[in-house]
Amino acid sequence: MLREKIFQTLLKISAILCGGIVIFIALFIALESIPFFRSTPIYRLITDQSWHPTEQLFNLAPMLWGSIYAVSLAILIAVPIGILVAIYIQFYAQSLIQSLVLQIVQILSGVPSVVFGLWGLVVLSPLIAQISGPGTSLLAGGIMLSIIVLPLIVIITNAQIEQFEEDYIKSALALGMSRQSIIIRVILPGISSGLYAGISLQIGRALGETMVVLMVCGNVVQAPLNPFEPVRALTANIALEMAYALGDHRSALFVSGLLLLLLVSAISMAQTKNRTIAYV
Amino acid sequence: MRIYSTLLISWTLISSLSACGPSSKPELPSSETTRITVTGSSTIAPLAAELAKKFETEHPEFRIDVQTGGSSRGISDVRSSIAHIGMVSRALYESESDLNHHLIARDGVTIIAHGKNPVKNLSRQQIIDIYTGKIRNWSMVGGDDKPVTVVHKAEGRSTLEVFLAYTKLKNTQIKADSIIGDNQQGLKLVANNPNAIAYVSIGAAEYDAAHGLSIKLIDLDGIEASTQNVRNGRFPITRDLNFVTKGNPSEATQRFLEFAVREYNQNIVEGLGFVAADAP
Q1: Which residues does B contribute to its contact with A (CB < 8 Å)?
Q2: Could B155 and A230 be called an inter-chain contact, meaning their C-beta atoms sit closer than 8 Å?
């Protein structure tokens, strides 16, 4: 009886601690941003000429777009490839190759992002520079982020396919459907909501990724539509400038942190809502 | 068992939290060890740490805490008495005349390019034109027909301030292709991009160039970029590395300051690629 009580209390404390930390951090970031909102009207975050905080110019919008562009590019590259790899593993690969590919994917998912960043800086960027531009660019960032996100997309898709109701596949087979059309018409639609949840988790992860984008994106504050141009992500901005920032500059960086937090929570909330609908 | 470990974890957390206290707001304890806190420029930090190590071996009753965070942090920490000594890698501004400075070394900022770049010399005006986007091709300054990749530093870095003071440019005027944080990032980027131009600390650049990194130091208006020329005052982009104090420093701080400028420390200064301060 006592044991049960203690166990329950422990569970409760863990839950409170877990939720509390998030709230505490969010509060802290909001509190640190307040000095900025006091001295500067909020619309200046998008109407100022540029981001030159030491000259009192605070336009954050290009970096918000920079983050969104780089992550979109990464998702655009990683999701189709990831799904195709998972389908290959599940339905086409021989068991030896299947376990080999899964092993490699798992190793890939454990590589620290700074190692990827180094590779991107030394190998990928010079390659891109040979085509056009300075090399460190939106494209380099998108590709590096897609490499970071890819393994988990494969793993998530793979797990979803494994959990997929076998009866559906059997019925489809009984109806005389080909393997290809079973995959496209039965399995993919069936796992789509789980897949969507997994992908939005990865979007959050890519948005928060700092070291890689800092190393390969070039960090120029602009929002180019040309992928060969450099961009600066919100996370890279904080990492680049926080150690040297004072006063309004410092709280402006906290504002960009707050923005990032809101963006990630919006994605996560949209995903939860979507999943509830799917289950209903 | 589980509860004991939870208790243990929370105790560790609490004690580590309280351990943060003294470093953020140090007071000189009356016990046998005297603590001196030094904060500021990351350029000076390695030098300060080396000096501190030597000082501590000679005087075991002192503990010296070196923390980085940029010259501006050094200034503000000394002003608010969070630190005893601030490290500031530039001459003090007029608005900072409330503080005392002690010149401990000099550092040159050099322009670097890729090792295979045929350009050997640039004039001040050419550098200004490159950084403001008037010169966009190396052929306009006697190099190959390749676009220039302009590498610039993030806001708040003192190398940036030294560079802006030399070129008399405002940060808003500069058109960069890539923005970096510290010297090492700049050196790696340039070594991997044949078209890049950047500016970094001369000590770091000379060291890496001598140790096989594919970069070259560009001469300025015919003056060779070398620590030698920083020492004799001929090289135009230099900065002072200062220790900064407020009011009458405590006896402990005074002793460390005297130690830091003592002549036999110059091998430490030069070992780190800086130039001794009181050389002619």
Answers
A1: 2-3, 6, 42, 68-70, 72-73, 76, 149, 154-157, 170-172, 176-181, 185, 188-189, 192-193, 195-196
A2: no
B107-231: CATH number: 3.40.190.10
If you measure CA to CA, which chain A residue comes closest to B150?
A: A134
Own/partner pairs for B259-268, CB < 8 Å, 24+ apart?
B259/B51, B259/B54, B259/B55, B259/B58, B260/B48, B260/B51, B260/B55, B260/B102, B260/B104, B261/B102, B261/B103, B261/B104, B265/B51, B265/B54, B268/B47, B268/B50, B268/B51, B268/B54
Domains of chain A: total:
2
Tell me the chain A residues in contact with residue B73 when contact means C-beta distances shorter than 8 Å. Answer: 243-244, 246
Domain parsing of chain B, residue ranges: 11-105+241-276, 107-231
**Interface predicted TM-score (ipTM) over 0.90:** no
pLDDT digits (tens, 9 = 90+) for B103-130: 888 878 899 999 888 988 899 999 999 9
A114 and A93, same structural domain? yes
